[in-house]
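Weekly puzzle thread! Below is a chain. First person to post its structure in token form gets bragging rights.
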Amino acid sequence: MDVETNSLPLKPPIEDEQDVQDATDLAAMGHAQALTRKFNIWSMLALAFCVLGGKQRGSPPWGIFFQHADHIRFLGTYSTFAQDLSSGLSNGASITILWGLVLVTACNLCVALSLGELTSSMPTALGQAYWVYRLWPTPLGRFVSYMCAWINTFGWWTLTASQVAFMTEFLLGMKTMFNPDWSGASQGWLNFVVFIGVVFLLTAINVVSCRREQILPWINNFVGVWFAGLFVVLSMVMLICVGVKSDLKFQPPSFVFGQWMNETGWSDGVVWFTGLVQAAYGLTAFDSVIHMVEEIPAPRKNAPRVIWMAVLFGAITGFIFMVVCLFCIQNVDNVAGADLPFMELMLETVGLKGGAVLIALFIFNGLGQGISVLTTASRLSWGFARDGGLPWSRYFSHVDPVWQVPARALWGQGVIIAIVGILYLFANTVLEAILSVSTIALTVSYAMPILALLITGRDKLPPGPFRLGRWGPWFNWVSIVYCIITTIFFLFPGAPNPAPSDMNYAIAVFGVMLVIAVAFWFIRGSRTYLQTEDAIAQMVYAQHLEDSGSPVPTQEAEVGFK
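Winning reply:
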């Protein structure tokens, strides 16, 4: 057996009935409690809110942005929406920016509730991949589960790499703001050095901050409050500046709530869907909660709440912030044609010095958000190794008894992300394509367990306190249709018949990822994935409990769908 498993007795101390309940639930899924449940519902919500939408956008019209410092992207839901202003204005304007966001929010809530029900049923760090196999316990189901695990893991690795690249570009771009002729930001070697430095910093903070239980949750609380505070500050500063400066004026409500623009070359129907994709970028990665469930008490009850609350809060702040931005735009053509539209808007309304101060605050907050993204990715990597899916799983499934964290998974993940940064030196196009694929991979990983649930039947879902009841099939089908549509349009180029330099190469990168996953299946995964002695025994035990009508006891949820 080449996969290390955690066995009883449990490592963290059992202090109350809830600890016993959580440990029992986890044991029924084949694992002992190896990490402390250090997060409460608010610190987990802060983590999810900061991670939500924290992805960089790849090919046009979403922008090839990493070649120069002029193409910096902001992180987070409302700021992702803000930086999408140029794409949003040319892909339907306020019709898709605002009302498309409303539709996307409704669809994403269906996905969030569907995943929340699955999380309540089977709360484990591996998340979507584990659910696929539990719902489809056949050799083919195990293979599909393995592919889902790799797709999800690739998605979080590339998301983490894109956040690090974001911080790299932002740090170098601060100098470019005041010295446009400085060429350092375009030097590959300098980008690589800063990239490596950010990877090391974020990884080291993740390792040492779990030495004492409350440090990492406190960091997430601080970053969440800071991020929410920036939302208020940015909104108020723009509104006040436009209101008090005699040479500035607000856009009319007809523009803010009813403007349609199509400057892409696609038909209006296609532009409506590509406009929806703009909103979809800012409301993805809410599975961060799923991969952190083993560090939150009462995950069957609390995790579903955090998932849908993060989506709802992100949508509300994004909608309000977009209304503010649309009212405050001074020159629509300049903002729509800018490489950095939100920066252009800030320069129009606040000015260079004020904008630089706000961007410095963003940089500080971005480092905190990077900690949250990297935390989530490491827990998924650790969970995948624990279930025998990664190469050298025995090594990477280890939880350090001193630091109380999967340190090997953290450092191993850091090495992989650092290797991605080498592409700064000679292959920017490949780097951009890799960084753009995270949203596609995550969306596909959301659809797979929901589709497995619909194919095998909802009666196969183990009981959990958060249930969708008769609304479940409707939410599940809306989720599947939404994931299919958005995945298709994530792959569209910015305009018909694009030049090679404007192509969207995300599908090629995604294809390479699938080939790698299949190769690892035949090399190792077919013999080790979910084939540890504990995993098999506990899977049979859980199935027996379900078949006998005696599920692992769970607390009743305070919310649910009847």
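Puzzle host: Confirmed. Bonus trivia for everyone else. The two ends are 45 Å apart (CA to CA).
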